[in-house]
Write a structure and sequence with these properties.
The chain has 485 residues and is of the alpha+beta class. It has a domain of 153 residues. Helices cover 63% and strands 6% of the residues. A 6-stranded antiparallel β-sheet has the order 1-5-2-3-4-6. α7 packs antiparallel against α8 and α22 packs across α23. The longest helix has 20 residues.
Length: 485
């Protein structure tokens, strides 16, 4: 078969690869790209297309092979040199490992410089060179390369962004701000563009403008813990601590296990002398990051002992054998925080006059597993809320844990639903108790902490405490925060 006869077959393989890409069949697409390259290795246009598609699929070995073939076919084509260099860089970045990275980046630099000798007016070539130099740690040269790229394509937001980031790496905020502003104007729907602008404005201490930029970024990419922290820090710089706390709480609500969110919220609560709330946040940080030096330092500031996830007999003080307290002197939230700190298995009963002011919290390893208070709906009610269509008469009468299993088997229950139901019930119960007049509280070990099976829901008690205190403050006229549950 002649070479001319192979060409339609190669085009067909490429077309089939594109169909596989559209349908999400990456492995099949790569196979067709390999076939297309084997059928028509002499076609520069084809091998360049194969390279781009293979790189987008993460098949960088094939992509580099195709790009190298394009250079072999026409070494005087600067675009082929730029394509090979860019593909090699993408492969290094995707691999993430350092082995051979310097060597490969050096080879890529050679190709892009060869291309620039042929076409020194190509902004794309200078931008590829700039990325390589950045990865090699040659920041001054990278800045010069980005400057060349941006001067050759002054209206291209990608070149402006690259130069702005290079300035930012050197804290040259005055030069970075107008470039980031131009990128934001060119890409008004890009959250990243406004994030970068906000960071640069923050570097210039132009707090109000930074707040506006971060606010726009959050509008475009809501529920970002990192953005809420950035926005909170800008408000904090203006002395607006209450507003900053609002955003730090939102950050923790978005990512409850985020070390950064826990630390910034804990520190700011401590500075605001909201010590009970600060201890609750830091205790959670201790459980998640018991050996982190910043957590240890903050815990010591608040007179807390990092206990982490160590067994009781190693670092955690054992829970009390029994406990009685007057809630006038020891409010229920403080008692629960104490028991969570000791990671107890047991039952805290709270009892006042008559049957109305009477309730209990069941704890397991310091986690809340159930709450019982008159007027607060039972756990199954919280569990099935919004899931009525998944119920029928046969399973309505099941105990809560069996109900959870039945719902999960029918695909009507997400993995965290039972935990969330326990949390919502716990918040409602705690809010009800906080409104009671002083009563007596008694703690009994083990009674409420027995293991109840894999389908049991258990939630960090401090999340329940934080959310209940947030709602309590809200009801008394303080600013509204996002829910932590």
């Amino acid at each position: 078969m002649s070479g001319a006869e192979y060409m339609p077959r190669a085009d067909g393989a490429l077309l089939e690869a594109l169909r596989f890409i559209e349908s999400g069949q990456a492995e099949a697409a790569v196979g067709q790209l390999e076939l297309a390259l084997a059928l028509a290795p002499e076609r520069v246009d084809l091998v360049a297309s194969i390279c781009r598609h293979a790189a987008d699929l993460g098949a960088f070995e094939l992509a580099v092979t195709a790009a190298q073939r394009a250079v072999d076919l026409d070494g005087d084509d600067p675009d082929s040199r730029f394509l090979l260099a860019r593909t090699m860089v993408r492969g290094v970045l995707a691999r993430g490992a350092k082995e051979r990275a310097t060597e490969e980046l050096g080879v890529a630099e050679g190709h892009v410089r060869a291309g620039l000798e042929l076409a020194p007016d190509r902004a794309r070539g200078w931008s590829v060179l700039a990325v390589i130099l950045e990865r090699l740690g040659r920041e001054a040269e990278a800045l010069d390369a980005w400057g060349q790229a941006q001067s050759l394509a002054p209206t291209d937001p990608e070149m402006a962004a690259g130069l702005a980031v290079a300035y930012a790496h050197q804290a040259r905020w005055e030069e970075a701000v107008p470039l980031f502003a131009a990128v934001a104007d060119a890409r008004p729907d890009s959250s990243d563009a406004y994030v970068n602008l906000g960071i640069a404005l923050h570097g210039l201490r132009r707090w109000e403008e930074a707040i506006a930029a971060f606010t726009r970024a959050i509008e475009l990419a809501p529920r970002s813990a990192r953005l809420e922290i950035r926005l909170g820090n800008a408000h904090l710089a203006l002395g607006q601590r209450d507003v900053a706390l609002d955003h730090f709480r939102k950050a923790l609500a978005h990512e409850p296990d985020s070390l950064e969110s826990l630390l910034v919220l804990g520190r700011t609560l401590h500075e605001a002398e909201q010590l009970q709330a600060a201890r609750g946040v830091v205790q959670r940080a201790i459980r998640l990051y018991p050996e982190h030096p910043e957590v240890e330092a903050l815990a010591q500031t608040l007179d807390l002992v990092p206990v982490g996830a160590a067994p009781h007999d190693a670092f955690t003080p054992r829970g009390p054998a029994a406990l009685e307290a007057d809630t006038a002197r020891f409010p229920v939230p403080d008692l629960l925080d104490f028991l969570a700190n000791h990671r107890v298995d047991g039952l805290l009963e709270v009892e006042g006059e008559g049957e109305v002011n009477k309730g209990a919290f069941a704890l397991r390893d310091g986690l809340l597993v159930a709450a019982r208070v008159p007027g607060v709906a039972p756990l199954w009610s919280w569990l099935v809320e919004g899931r009525a269509e998944a119920l029928d008469a046969e399973i309505r009468a099941l105990p809560c844990l069996n109900l959870a299993a039945a719902l999960r088997a029918r695909g009507g229950l997400e993995p965290t639903a039972l935990e969330e139901a326990v949390g919502r019930q716990g918040v409602a119960a705690l809010l009800a108790m906080m409104a009671w007049p002083p009563v007596r509280a008694r703690y009994y070990p083990e009674a409420g902490g027995q293991r109840r099976g894999e389908d049991d829901g258990a939630i960090e008690l401090r999340l329940v405490l934080l959310e209940a205190l947030r709602q309590w403050d809200e009801s008394r006229g303080t600013p509204v925060q996002d829910s932590l549950l």
